[in-house]
């Protein structure tokens, strides 16, 4: 099934190859732009069916996606699971629930992301959920880029991708003078 997910990423031009500046400041030879896949509802639905199957033994009352990347996939997975889907967002640089969203004490909550690399946004969302008294089931993601690192909770992903990352000072792509691009902006550096 992972091969099918990679195929869907490639079909939608969501799996990019080149020289990319990541938000961490590191460089990479590949980048996953899940929004490119998620613009196709039928492909989003197919990926969420894979996640739904992986989550079949979990009790989930509500899904929460961190804005921006988690919103669409949370909605689609919520639909597949038949549960509400809400999102967290930053306000004054702090992850929070707004827009009248709430998590009830004791609810089983699944955090939903497009890509998990370090888990930073997901972990901030987990704190919000726990502050409301919710019980975190785990994190579901379209793509797992953690490289097998423990992020402190269960991770359910449609596909795990091994993608090379480099410090700027030791980047073989820089040494080859391959153009550096910040994903999403098409801006060259």
Automatic annotation (TrEMBL):
Q: Which domain of life is it from?
A: Bacteria
Could you tell me the EC number(s) of this protein?
2.4.2.10
Q: What class of enzyme is it?
A: transferase
Alphabetic keyword roster? Glycosyltransferase, Transferase
The protein in question is named Orotate phosphoribosyltransferase
């Amino acid at each position: 099934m992972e091969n099918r997910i990679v195929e869907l990423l490639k079909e939608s031009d969501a799996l990019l190859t080149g020289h990319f500046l990541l938000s961490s400041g590191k460089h990479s030879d590949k980048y996953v732009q899940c929004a490119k896949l998620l613009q196709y509802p039928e492909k989003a639905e197919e990926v969420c069916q894979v996640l739904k199957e992986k989550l079949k033994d979990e009790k989930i009352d509500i899904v929460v996606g961190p804005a921006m990347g988690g919103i669409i996939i949370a909605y689609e997975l919520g639909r597949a699971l038949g549960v509400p889907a809400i999102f967290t967002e930053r306000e004054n640089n702090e992850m929070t629930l707004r827009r009248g969203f709430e998590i009830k004490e004791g609810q089983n909550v699944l955090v939903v992301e497009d890509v998990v690399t370090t888990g930073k946004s997901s972990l901030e969302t987990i704190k919000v959920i726990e502050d409301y008294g919710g019980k975190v089931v785990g994190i579901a993601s379209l793509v797992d880029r953690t490289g097998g690192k423990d992020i402190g909770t269960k991770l359910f992903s449609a596909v795990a991708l091994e993608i090379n990352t480099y410090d700027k000072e030791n980047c073989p792509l820089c040494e080859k003078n391959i153009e550096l691009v910040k994903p999403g902006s098409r801006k060259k550096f």
